[in-house]
Amino acid sequence: MPNTILILEDSKTQARIVGTLFEKNGYKADFAHDRFEALHKLNSRGYALLVLDVFVGEENTLDYLHMYRKAAGDAPIAIMTAGKRDTPLAGSQALNKARRAEVEFLLPKPFDINDVHQICAEAERIRRRKGPVKRILVIEDDAHSRIIYRSYLEDEGFYVAESNSVEDALVRLEITRVDAILIDLIMPGIGGMTGIKVISATWPDVPLIAMTGYTQNPDNLHNALARGAISALAKPFTKDVLLTEVKKALSDDRTVVL
């Protein structure tokens, strides 16, 4: 059932509402109203996406996520939560929970057709990749630079997600699981220097590579390392330099370098 999603929601009314949003994005919706029905269906057929409400009856779905993950196979998982997305802190807290639960997407309630479209598009990208790959998040306000870095990384087989600010990265529904992060230091909003601390709280075990073009102030790079980046790159840098640092960051044996 490549275009069918499974929605676990104990309220039949809410399940139909959610199902309609996904159907408007080209999917067929199947429903389960408790854990046993959901696991039975997952073990009986394949789905393109699994959408789970956090609280189903008296149960917390995250307590059984290992079961859903095993039964779902390669299908990505979206968690519907009651969290708020109007502040970076709320987004960070929600992402922390999702990161620990190893889910691909968050759908903070109330969500709308645009939120669902965003997740459907990203789920399709994941499905086209066919198999587990390392996921790199690039936080960079310059669109041209993001295109270049994405090209470099995708040529090497990485999956790339992009944000134009730290705030955007914290609330984007499709950015939950990441294996390494590239972050520009000079950006609008809270910026990369403060953002390193915020990002590190969101993804505490994910290696972070800082980068900046303002090399006339070398303290920027040193300060980034002091705040938690494992590497700091002065722009412009070559494809080889970027890939070397990313692979080093993803390795088990890594040290902080400048």
What does this protein structure show overall?
- The structure is a single chain.
- This protein has 258 residues and is of the alpha/beta class.
- The chain folds into 2 domains: 4-128, 3-Layer(aba) Sandwich (Rossmann fold), CATH 3.40.50.2300; 133-250, Rossmann fold (3-Layer(aba) Sandwich).
- The chain is 44% helix and 20% strand.
- It has 10 helices and 12 strands.
- The strands form 3 sheets. Strands 2-1-3-6-7 form a 5-stranded parallel sheet, sandwiched between helices. Strands 9-8-10-11-12 form a 5-stranded parallel sheet, with helices on both faces.
- The longest helix is centred in the middle third of the chain and has 17 residues, at 113-129.
- The chain is elongated and about 60 Å long.
- The model has no long low-confidence stretch (mean pLDDT 84).
How are the SSEs ordered, and which strands pair?
Blueprint: E1 4-8, H1 12-23, E2 28-32, H2 35-44, E3 49-53, E4 55-56, E5 59-60, H3 65-72, E6 77-81, H4 88-101, E7 105-108, H5 113-129, E8 135-139, H6 143-155, E9 159-163, H7 166-171, E10 180-184, H8 191-202, E11 208-212, H9 219-227, E12 231-234, H10 239-250
Parallel strand pairs: 1-2, 1-3, 3-6, 6-7, 8-9, 8-10, 10-11, 11-12
Antiparallel strand pairs: 4-5
Helix pairs in contact: 2-3, 4-8
Main beta sheet: strand number and arrangement? Answer: 5 strands, parallel
CATH class of the largest domain: Alpha Beta
* Strand order, largest beta sheet: 2-1-3-6-7
Q: What is the radius of gyration?
A: 19 Å
- Proportion of residues in extended strands: 15-25%
What is the CATH architecture term of the largest domain?
3-Layer(aba) Sandwich
**How many alpha or pi helices?**
10
Poorly predicted tracts of residues? none
How many angstroms separate the termini?
49 Å
Summarize the amount of helix as a percent range: 40-55%
Number of E-type strands? 12
CATH fold type of the largest domain: Rossmann fold
What is the CATH homology-level superfamily of the largest domain?
Response regulator
Count of structural domains: 2
Order of helices and strands: EHEHEEEHEHEHEHEHEHEHEH
Write down the overall mean pLDDT. Answer: 84
What class would the helix/strand composition place it in? alpha/beta
Shape: elongated
